[in-house]
Amino acid sequence: MQIQLVGERPLVPRPSATVGTCRQFSQPPERQVKPKSDLSHGTAIELVDHYLDKFCGRPHSIFHQATLRSQVRNGSLNEALLYAVCAIGCKFSGNPYIRGQGSSWAAESKRLLQADISNICLENIQACILVAMLSVGHGDSASEALFFRIATALAEIMSLNSPFPEGSVIDREIRRRVWWSLYMTDMWCISGQGLHSQLKGVKAKIELPINDRTFMSLHSEQLAIVDPLDHGIWAQMITLVPLFGPIHNINRLAANGETHTINLDQQVEQLAGNLEDWKQKLPIDAQMNHENLRRQQKRGLGGLLISIHLAYHHYATLLYFRYLEVQLPRSASDRTYITRFSSSVLVHTLLFGDLDQLETASRELNTNFEALMELSQYWPAISAMIERLLVFQDMCLLSTESGTHKLDGWMLRFLIEHSLDIEAKKMQVNPSSLNADSEKLSSKAKELTEQGRYLRFRSP
Description:
The protein has 460 residues and is an all-alpha fold.
């Protein structure tokens, strides 16, 4: 099974490089240094285990777990990659001192990677991906974009988007998973910064990843697998990603008023069908229910299962959001979309819901914020995400203007460009009515607070 991307951009054929083998095109600007003394061999083994147990396979799938563990134990892993893995893994350590080394190890990984960037190899691509993840986790969106783009360029030079008949099954599958990880990142993270996609229009020439359990069970010298077309949970995420571009485009057209509402509704209906079709065709192991979630948790794939369904609901949020605008005329399909979607948009419930809905909406919003605040101890950038949500709440609940859920340029930035800072929407203000508006806002805030519609949570 192959996924077909829209359009095709020809790539210059290049010889492939094997997994873990660097092709040095020029001397690196700095010599490689010995590992820093504060990262002992035993600590590295422990932190790699934390990384594999808590992080690997969620935002990307770029390692074979047994192979990575073996490389760490025998000391053969690229140093830049080792420091990047440990900088992520230390976030989950129970030792405060080790947790405090994350920034130092991330900086060391970046330094070693920059010194060795002319070596074209899979390990440097993997290191770029992890350095990019560390960057976004600390709010450095510029470095995130830079290292993801370097990784994509290296992958193109290595022809990762081409069949690779050499090497073991593990070698071939890691190459495939690295390229698909970059493809999904390019569709999601790059657009989240308002940047142009590098892989838009590139035709996929490789198969989807094999079943995740099969991949984890492979041994190092294995040359073939029994059922190579048995795709697992992670492959389902890849088949969902192509819908993001069209959904993104619809929202931009709506925000800019560039097309008629009827045309937009027709496109929404088609994409809604595509989303539902994706969900209905999920294999049993990828479906969301309590029984399957427990089963996948036992297999170490529970986080991955949750991730693909979060992505599905996020895409639905982006697709149906404009139907929350209360001033829009309602057709039967509009009401269907609202019913399908607005129950998960808790701020909308706080603003327009009946009083008997407020307690549940407030409780669930508080639960969401508590979860985000807990996550912020691992990823400092989450504090900025919380502030974005608070700005959104204030704009929706305290605005003196109507149409708080109107899909304009400001709202589009909030929904799509999730890596960028966002300021409160600038409203048209009549100076003569400024005092009256201020009093109205104060009165409205008090009223909403008394009703339970306005929540005063704040990030730590």
